[in-house]
Amino acid sequence: MRLAARFSVFLVLVQHVVGKLVKVDKTPSFDVTLSQVDNTRIKAVVTNTGHDDVTFVHLNFFRDSAPVKKVTIYQNGKLQGLTSEALTMLVAGESLEDEFDIATTSDLSHGGSVTLRSSGLVPLVKGDSVFGYLRYHSNSLTIEIDAVRASQVAKAVVPLMRRANLSCSNSTRKAIMGKALSNTVSLANAAAHAALFGSTTKFSEYFKTTINATRQVVAARLQAVAKEAGSTTSGATTYYCADAYGYCETNVLAYTLPALNLIANCDIYYSYLPAMAGGCHDQDQATTSLHEFTHAPRVYSPGTEDLGYGYVSSTALSSSDAVMNADTYALYANVKRRSSERKFRMLNVSEGKVSSKEG
Ligand SMILES: [Zn+2]
């Protein structure tokens, strides 16, 4: 994941429309120009550069505010239920503009340089039916993303009322998990309170700043973790008490699949970790679970990365990296215990981290 911050990645804005391309001599064409408004806020200008006015289906295209694709309108490869609300008419030579924030739908937790481009097919309409599809391409736009500000944007869409769903058929482990998650709630709530109202010196030790905006972000993420850990009946994440996806290996305590908002504990979570550690920055079940919850984008978006493990490497990070680093939250929540060497590593299995903005 660190590599993502060092090199450009491509966020491809893709349309997934099936069907034939238009087969007419006067092929209409769109010019799509992307520009940066502010950090993760992007403006698209779509210009009808053809000679004819066109009417098109704007679902999953620009000006469609839905963060998900409306796949249900397709049946047997055809658009169904076409209504005027789904159509836009663009006069020849005229443009439409759309602004959207890519932080609401993409994981931009790494910050840094990102290249955007948009391409796809837009359904063209005559009367009440689709007669063909217009292929379009945008310019490539490379922008620098501030990860902290991206975090602030994305929290507005976090489903805070959802709760962790504990999946466990082993009654012994289920009891241990119940206690661990209860401790996670206490730790996360206490740390959130400390971030907002506690020592600025202590906060700066971990997050390298005392500015209010960063304290708010840290507190909000910790509050979201507390909320998620606070119930085991339904939620934004699924938490398995065993290795449900086969990623456990020697020295791995637990892992998170951010793309699935799925967390799983490995055997040594139970055999190696105490419920709550007694000294130093020792690992325990509560802080390990807290660490994993911060990775899940549906708990608080964007999910954290693993930029540094343990006290020494975590406190060597810049402020913008620290606020996106899972272990910084675990260590800060464990703030009364002094530093000691971390003996085991945790695995963050990251899949689909470069997600696509669907028009
Ligand atoms: Zn991790």
Keywords, please?
359 residues, alpha/beta, 5-stranded mixed beta sheet, 4-stranded mixed beta sheet, 10 helices, disordered N terminus, disordered C terminus, binds zinc ion
How would you characterize the overall build of this protein?
With 359 residues, the chain is an alpha/beta fold. The chain is built from ten helices and 16 strands. The strands form five sheets. It has a five-stranded mixed sheet. Strands 1, 9, 10 and 11 form a four-stranded mixed sheet that branches. Strands 2-3-8 form a three-stranded antiparallel sheet, with no helix packed on it. A hairpin with a 2-residue loop joins strand 5 and strand 6. It is elongated and about 75 Å long. The two termini are 25 Å apart. 41% of the residues are buried. The N terminus and C terminus are likely disordered. The structure holds zinc ion. The site of zinc ion has 6 residues, from helix 7 and strand 16.
Reconstruct the topology from this structure.
Elements: H1 2-6, E1 9-14, E2 30-38, E3 41-48, E4 54-57, E5 74-75, E6 78-79, E7 87-90, E8 95-101, E9 112-126, E10 129-137, E11 141-145, H2 147-154, E12 165-167, H3 171-197, H4 200-207, H5 212-229, E13 238-240, E14 252-257, E15 262-265, H6 267-271, H7 285-295, H8 310-314, H9 319-322, H10 326-333, E16 345-348
Parallel strand pairs: 1-9, 12-13, 13-15, 14-16
Antiparallel strand pairs: 2-3, 3-8, 4-7, 5-6, 9-10, 9-11, 14-15
Helix pairs in contact: 3-5, 3-7, 7-10
Bound molecules: zinc ion.
